[in-house]
Amino acid sequence: MPITPRKGVRGIAPWHAATLSGKGYNMDLFTDMTHAVLARVLDGTATRQRALADNIANADTPGYSRKEVRFEEELRLLISRGAPDVPSMREAAAEVDITTTDDVTSPRGLDGNNVVLEREMADVAINSLRYETTAQLMSMKLRELRTAIREGR
Q1: What whole-number distance in Å separates Cα of residue 37 and Cα of residue 86?
Q2: What span, in angstroms and rounded, lies between the C-alpha atoms of 18 and 4?
Q3: How far is CA 78 from the centre of its chain?
Q4: Among the listed residues 102, 115, 100, the one whose alpha carbon sits nearest the alpha carbon of residue 57
Q5: CA distance 127 to 43
Q6: Rounded to an integer, what is the distance from CA 107 to the centroid of its chain?
Q7: How many alpha carbons fall within 13 Å on the CB side of residue 120?
Q8: pLDDT tens profile 127-138
Q9: How far apart (Å, rounded) are the C-alpha atoms in residues 62 and 112?
Q10: Which pTM does this prediction carry?
Q11: What residue ranges of the chain have pLDDT lower than 70?
């Protein structure tokens, strides 16, 4: 199948807008279901990293409530539920809510702050590993695509 750039795609590099076309089959090379899910995980972990940095920066602020970021459960449900087709799944993955909320369950200190630096630092380490692993998976996927485009060379 020939690779042809899509017409009229603004703000996207031509190679990113490439599609496979033939016999009514049209699939975006760079935005399949796996790519969409990995991209959303990167978005979620980046948002979490910012929230963790805010928590650490406000560890001594009286009355500060630590922030939590949630998106994994909704993404898990989406993946397990599936979608009738890949475009629907891509759209659904892109719409998974990345929510930042105040932690109201952790105990508060005398100053009303519920940030525990040791916990935040451990969460930063875990989140960093998740982000790096997801980025590596995305990179592997793009390498596979590059190999396929080069016909295995």
Answers
A1: 11
A2: 6
A3: 14
A4: 115
A5: 12
A6: 30
A7: 21
A8: 999 999 999 999
A9: 6
A10: 0.74
A11: 1-31, 83-84, 86, 152-153
Task: Identify whether the C-beta of residue 120 lies closer than 8 Å to the C-beta of residue 21.
Answer: no
Run of H or E residues at 102 = strand 99-102
| CB within 8 Å of 36: residues ≥ 6 apart | 89, 90, 93, 94
Q: Provide CB contacts within 8 A for 79, sequence distance 6+.
A: 37
Per-residue tokens: 124: 């930063």
Contact 65, 105 (CB under 8 A): no
Longest dimension (CA), the chain: 68
Rounded Cα distance, 68 and 134, in Å: 20
At 32-55, the pLDDT tens digits run 788 889 999 999 999 999 999 999
Which one, of 37, 43, 109, lies nearest residue 70 by Cα? 43
Q: What tokens were used for 44? A: 């979620």
